[in-house]
Design a protein that fits this description.
By secondary structure, the chain is mainly beta. Helices cover about 10% and strands about 40% of the residues. The chain contains one helix and nine strands. Bound molecules: zinc ion.
Length: about 130
């Protein structure tokens, strides 16, 4: 299911960017992991003032339904990631034993800055575009 969503989102980006026709673009996750970009915060309601470098996990303790965070590219946009499985696209938050969080699948923006990244253990892993 998650793989499907990822494919769908990547497909959208591929389509919209590949207007020249001759070149093929593929995206692969970068090997670089940018250390501890975010800290995790559990919060009941959507924050009025979204600070950069914080992953807001929104909802009651036993019912989290949204992740709110600033785009890590620095564009200033606030991103809202739906966690409700019934609504597409949806993401999920994984807690690691050391307290870090990861978010699946990747975030692939098809508007504005078009950033594509994973949140892995509170860090950002950018996707790189390869043109063949
Ligand atoms: Zn951005």
């Amino acid at each position: 299911m998650i793989k499907k969503i990822m494919k769908l989102v990547v497909g959208t980006l591929y389509k919209s960017k590949n207007t020249t026709g001759s070149q093929k673009e593929t995206q692969v996750p970068s090997k670089k992991l940018y250390k501890k970009y975010y800290t995790y915060e559990s919060i009941e309601d959507i924050p009025d003032n979204v600070k950069p470098n914080i992953i807001y996990h929104v909802g009651e303790n036993n019912f989290k339904w949204l992740v709110v965070l600033k785009c890590p590219c620095g564009c200033g946009d606030t991103l809202q990631l739906n966690l409700l499985k019934d609504t597409s696209p949806s993401w999920r938050v994984k807690f690691h034993t050391d307290g870090d969080v990861s978010i699946y699948p990747s975030v692939n923006r098809i508007i504005n800055c078009r950033s594509h990244f994973n949140i892995t253990k509170n860090s950002v892993r950018w996707w790189e575009v390869w043109i063949r």
